[in-house]
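Subject: mismatched residue count in predicted assembly?

I count 227 residues in my input, but I want to confirm that the predicted structure covers every chain. Input:
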Amino acid sequence: AQSVAQPEDQVNVAEGNPLTVKCTYSVSGNPYLFWYVQYPNRGLQFLLKYITGDNLVKGSYGFEAEFNKSQTSFHLKKPSALVSDSALYFCAVRDGAGGFKTIFGAGTRLFVKA
Amino acid sequence: NAGVTQTPKFQVLKTGQSMTLQCAQDMNHEYMSWYRQDPGMGLRLIHYSVGAGITDQGEVPNGYNVSRSTTEDFPLRLLSAAPSQTSVYFCASSSDRGNYGYTFGSGTRLTVV
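Triage response: the counts match. Full output below for your records.
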């Protein structure tokens, strides 16, 4: 069965500094990996995905993520954080070997201080 | 606007009552899912559907039923509400198994007393 781990409940960063939100995964087949963001009292919004190809993928709002197969990780990054990036971030995985289920991690709250 | 519509937005139930959470999408998406969101546990998959007439269980299906009679609608039924079902429920839809990301509804906040 596939699973996702987000080891940090909260990440604190100063505005203008780079940010990283960590994610590791486990699947039996090839991983299809996703990041979503949730602002207060809203549904989740899709940020970016990795299906195949370049290990560094770029998404919305200046976010990017790096796929590392040997470490089974898919960390979310941004070179310069904004206060408006403060939100709840979810990593998700689907088993590319024909699976239909997308499984989400527990979420990491990002707090960007001005 | 195109998207996923969930109703109601808020609901309070008494233990043992039943109800249906409605979900509709107008994007002609084949794939639809129901998740519940609980603090510290993220989103957990309840049931999903890969097309009209086809549904399957997710991670936490007990106490919930679904059906998919049309492409557009995917209602979630609580058979006999329990306090443990107090949660925020999200419906999501996608084309191509979610490879292009899911579109989420705005959620239903359910309290069971």
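The mean pLDDT of chain B is 93. Marking this ticket as 'not a bug'.
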